[in-house]
Amino acid sequence: MTQLLLLAAALVLLTVLAGLWRVLRGPQRADRLMAAQLLCTGGIAALLLVAAAYGIEAIVDVALLLALLGAFTSVAFVMAARLVGSR
After folding, report:
1. Is the pTM of this model over 0.70?
2. Is 11 exposed, middle or buried (0-12, 13-18, 19+ CB in 10 A)?
3. DSSP state for residue 86 in the 8-state scheme
4. What pLDDT shows up at residue 86?
5. pLDDT digit string (tens) for 30-44?
6. Distance (Å) of CA 71 to CA 2, 24, 56, 68, 86
7. What residues contact residue 45 under an 8 Å CB cut-off, 6+ apart?
8. Shortest CA distance to 49 belongs to which of 60, 62, 38, 39?
9. Which of 59, 55, 46, 54 is nearest to 11 (CA)?
């Protein structure tokens, strides 16, 4: 079962790499924001899969912290877009 969970985590990380490409090359800001959200979500999923595979509860705390940072990132992006757009 551990091997299956680690394989699933590796597949999630591959999708995160595809999202990273979109962050770097995204034509619009909204594309980059959505890709950044994908990075956060994929990172959380991979961390939770690794935590389940090895039974380490501290990794769940790191995943929750990443979720919190992802939410703050979205809010900061929207606030920055409003400030730049109001000029």
Report:
1. yes
2. middle
3. T
4. 60
5. 777 888 888 889 999
6. 30, 20, 24, 5, 23
7. 9, 12
8. 60
9. 46
Q: Between vectors from CA 72 to CA 67 and to CA 76, what angle results, nearest 5°?
A: 150
CA distance 87 to 72: 23
CA distances from 5 to 17, 36, 41, 45, 49 (A): 19, 24, 17, 11, 6
Whole-angstrom distance, CA of residue 14 vs CA of residue 32: 18
User: Is residue 76 a contact partner of residue 33, using CB atoms and an 8 Å limit?
Assistant: no
Identify which of 24, 27, 2 has the alpha carbon closest to the alpha carbon of residue 16.
Answer: 24
As a whole number of angstroms, the distance between CA 29 and CA 34 comes to 9
The DSSP result for 24-79, as a single string, is: HH-SSHHHHHHHHHHHHHHHHHHHHHHHHHHT-THHHHHHHHHHHHHHHHHHHHHH
Looking up tokens 């400030």 gives 83
pLDDT of residue 80: 85
